[in-house]
Amino acid sequence: EVQLVQSGAEVKKPGESLKISCKGSGYSFTTYWIGWVRQMPGKGLEWMGIIYPGDSDTRYSPSFQGQVTISADKSISTAYLQWSSLKASDTAMYYCARSKLVGAFDAFDFWGQGTVVTVSS
Amino acid sequence: EIVLTQSPGTLSLSPGERATLSCRASQSVSSSYLAWYQQKPGLAPRLLIYRTSSRATGIPDRFSGSGSGTDFTLTISRLEPEDFAVYYCQQYGSSPWTFGQGTKVEIK
Predict the structure, then answer these.
(1) Tens digits of per-residue pLDDT, A65-104?
(2) Are B84 and B26 in contact (CB under 8 A)?
(3) What is the DSSP string of A11-50?
(4) Alpha-carbon distance B2 to A53, whole Å?
(5) DSSP-assigned letters across all residues of B53-85
(6) Residue B36 in contact with residue A108, Cβ under 8 Å?
(7) Half-sphere exposure of B21 (CA within 13 A, CB side)
(8) Helices (H), chain A
(9) DSSP code of B24?
(10) What is the rounded distance in angstroms from the CA atom of residue A17 to the CA atom of residue B98?
(11) Which is it for strands A18-25 and A3-6: parallel, antiparallel or unpaired?
């Protein structure tokens, strides 16, 4: 069974750093692209970026380029999303999701349960 | 960046009725790489349709997708109580992938 399990909720202060995780299981982690999607409170879905764990090829949305870093550790089948200096506007739910087709861009067929990040002084 | 505009913002319908949701792209979507997702409160989105018209695994046949170029449609032939939710379209033909702003299907 394919599963993406995300790390737990985080409460941080502005300026702090954070790294959240997404662990894949039940499939070949290195051969499917993994993406990250933001959903701010009461708002829609925003595509942040995507990584191919096999070689760490990464693409970012221009809206998020330079604001976050996406990485992966294929040895433990885990993708990451990190911030070096959080802002209050980073408060949101963050989802990881798997691209449907092996080795290629496709729709997201499996999603993590989401990680809530709250940034408040 | 391809901007996706969904309409209407909210659709008020009764169970058993037909729902037609629209997604318009600011430029042609490459290879019809257009998907539809359903999201219920407190849950992650669920893939319904990919490649414009292919149903994802386990999705009932009352859901269908159509369209090409810049105009795409999700149709729910007969609304079931569990279909009331928010629906998003997404294009993944060119980077950055983008989502529409969503259409809420609510009970009338």
Answers:
(1) 999 999 999 999 999 999 999 999 999 999 999 999 988 8
(2) no
(3) EE-TT--EEEEEEEESS-GGGS-EEEEEE-TT--EEEEEE
(4) 26
(5) TEEPTT--TTEEEEEETTEEEEEESS--GGG-S
(6) no
(7) 36
(8) none
(9) E
(10) 27
(11) antiparallel
Length of chain A: 121
Distance CA A98, CA A7 (A): 16
Q: Which of residues 22-61 of B touch A (CB under 8 A)?
A: 33, 35, 37, 39, 44-47, 50-51, 56-57
Contact (Cβ atoms closer than 8 angstroms) between residue B8 and residue B104: no
DSSP A85: S
The pair of structure tokens assigned to B37 is 């997702």
| Chain A residues touching residue B33 (CB < 8 angstroms) | 105-107
Sign of CA dihedral B2, B3, B5, B6: positive
To the nearest whole angstrom, how far is the Cα of A38 from the nearest Cα of chain B? 11
Statement: residue B32 has pLDDT above 90: no
